[in-house]
Amino acid sequence: MSLKNLNVVSFESRLSKTMGDLIKLNGGNPILAPAMKEVPLENNPAAFDFAEKVLKGDFDMAIFLTGVGTKALMAAIETRFRREDILNAFRKIEIVVRGPKPTRVLNEWNVPIHVSAPEPNTWREILNALDANREKYPVKNRHVALQEYGVPNPELVEGLRERGAQVTTVPVYRWALPDDTKPLKEAIQMLCAGKADVVIFTTAVQIHHALQVAAEMNKVDSLKKAFSKTVIASVGPDCSQALRSYGIAVDIEPQHPKMGPLVTETAQKAHTILLSKRSKEST
Q1: Do the domain assignments include residue 2?
Q2: Which structural domain, as residue segments, surrounds residue 269?
Q3: What span, in angstroms and rounded, lies between the C-alpha atoms of 269 and 159?
Q4: 131, 180, 184: which is closest to 159 by C-alpha?
Q5: Which of 145, 15, 149, 124 is nearest to 70 (CA)?
Q6: Which of 93, 141, 199, 229 has its CA 20 to 30 A from that of 18?
Q7: CATH number at residue 230
Q8: Mind listing the pLDDT tens digit for each residue in 112-150?
């Protein structure tokens, strides 16, 4: 099976072209509607406070959730502190990572990693990995720094606190709507008009922003109704949870939470799911 003759909406921003190429490669017609942009916190007191505490040895553990966020955190810190001083301080505390992207960054910096969460790399896997290593790397009665990745992660913070940790969150960047929202509005219009067949989500922020713009257009109900008639593909558990919190059913979630498997599995299943949804609608 393929995405042949299907209009596929993607809200991906940073890797929008790559997503478009993958959709085309699988026979689909990509409708690219970037839904967000990363906005660094240029004046980031939380990052500077984190750096001061790291240098003083106040943290026992640091959790890094994203590669982009880890780099952005260092870029902010470097405006006031020496990189090597910070890296030496990192090497004296226990380092926990959510997945391969922060792992690559910390490996480049020669910072040892003590605990790594397995796929699908959600907050649940972080907590499970910490539980599995609690004898060697306990969190109880310890001060843990958590690098946030654009939106807060209250479940992870609460899970750490339930295990007895003192948690300091370090927001590094936030998400905003793109400067040009015209493609996003056009995609919403297309969905509401029944002219799209598949929607692909690669992060929870995309659904927040799509519904925010739909609200500005007075089309929230129409958009949700449109989602019920299209194939909804989600990159992984966190994204799926966000969709379901808005009452949007997820049709496809790949075994591996990555863009390639997401598009491949969507291509394999989309026609069958779409036929089933639309035949139910007509009865």
Answers
A1: no
A2: 7-36+178-282
A3: 35
A4: 131
A5: 149
A6: 229
A7: 3.40.50.10090
A8: 999 999 998 889 999 999 999 999 999 999 999 999 876
Which amino acid is residue 213, in one-letter code? V
- In Å, how far are 96, 154, 204, 230, 256 from 151, measured between CA atoms? 19, 9, 9, 27, 22
Residue 246 tokens read as 């808005």
Rounded Cα distance, 276 and 251, in Å = 11
123 Cβ neighbours under 8 A, 6+ residues apart: 98, 153, 155, 156, 159, 238
Are residue 121 and residue 151 in the same domain, yes or no?
yes
Pairing type for strands 29-32 and 94-97 reads unpaired
Q: Does residue 148 fall inside a structural domain?
A: yes
3-state secondary structure of 178: coil
- The pLDDT tens digits for 149-190 are 767 788 999 999 999 999 999 988 778 899 999 999 999 999
> ω before 171 within 30° of 0 (cis)?
no
The answer, as to whether pTM is greater than 0.85, is no
Cα atoms in the Cβ-side hemisphere of radius 13 Å centred on 230: 28
The angle, 0 to 180 degrees and rounded to 10, between the axes of the packed helices 204-216 and 220-228 is 130
Are residues 12 and 80 located together in one domain of the fold?
no
Indicate if 164 and 263 belong to the same structural domain: no
Query: Residue 214: inside a domain, yes or no?
Result: yes
Q: Residues, the chain, total?
A: 283
| Cα gap 257→199, rounded to integer Å | 16
171 and 195 fall within a common domain: no
Residue 61: beta bridge partners? 94, 144
